[in-house]
Amino acid sequence: MTDGRNPAETGKEYAAPALDKGLDILELLCRAEAPLTQKQIASELGRTVGELYRMVASLVARKYVGQIGETYHITTKLFELAQINPPTHRLLLEATPIMQKLASEIEQSCHLTVYGQGRQVVIAKVDSPSSMGYSIRLGSELDVIVSASGRVMLAFQEKATRRMLIEEALLRRPDHADAALNDKLDAIRDRGFESAQSTQIRGMHAVSYPILDSQNHAIAALTVPYADRIDLVGRKSIDDVQKALGLAARSLCLRMGCDPDAPPMQPPVAIPNYADIKMRRRRKKTAKEST
């Protein structure tokens, strides 16, 4: 019988060392740029070959890992499993109830956008439950650089990716060039969200939060186009919307695999190619002997 506690909250009591070893091996091989021997795997993970032998054999048997001679490499099985539940389908599945609850709470519409080829596309939206409100049509294409949602998606990317996305957006709308854009994006990243008067619709205030993946990169933006109902008693303020939207976005991020407290993923591991090293040493030795 369990006590109803979440395993993630009870630490080592629910630790699974064997599972951890298997996941460590998979993550290492995913990052490695070349197949690794068992000795290299053990060295990189700070373990002995004996500790990992059975786990490696099991991963090979289940076809998560392939074997070529004495070296091991990641197969496409993890990718194939991921494609069974495509990211956009899962994003919509998880986002819909969160967006419905948010719209009901703040009495404003909200929409979810993803980036694609220099523009954003609205893939989900929930209208305001009140009799009047502003909303964006499903499937609409939105500009990137001048919109709150677009700037949020740019802000939460690696520098190289950000630069590429900006270049794509400017090819579509060169009139949106902004010399101070990177400074603005860095400020958004530090703040965690964007909240600003709309540059496209007079009187509209946009609040947008990123939806992050497991590496803390933005895969979407959740946005509220705030329309101030002056005739509504007890209406929510912009501050209220920022707080409610922040909680909704955090909930969706967690469901998409983002852990705000986790360190970023390590870059690819450059493992030396020992065969090449031995060959170069033999060539140097031969050159010395010939002289």
Structural summary, described in words:
This protein starts with 16 loop residues before the first helix and ends with a helix. The radius of gyration is 25 Å and the shape is elongated. The longest helix has 20 residues. The protein is built from ten helices and nine strands. The strands form two sheets. The protein has a six-stranded antiparallel sheet, with helices on both faces. It has a three-stranded antiparallel sheet with strand order 1-3-2. The protein has 291 residues and is α+β, with helices and mostly antiparallel strands.
Give a short synopsis of this structure.
The protein has 291 residues and is an alpha+beta fold. It has helices at 17-31, 38-45, 49-61, 77-84, 87-106, 148-155, 159-172, 181-191, 238-255, 274-290, and strands at 36-37, 65-68, 71-74, 110-116, 119-126, 141-142, 194-197, 205-212, 218-226.
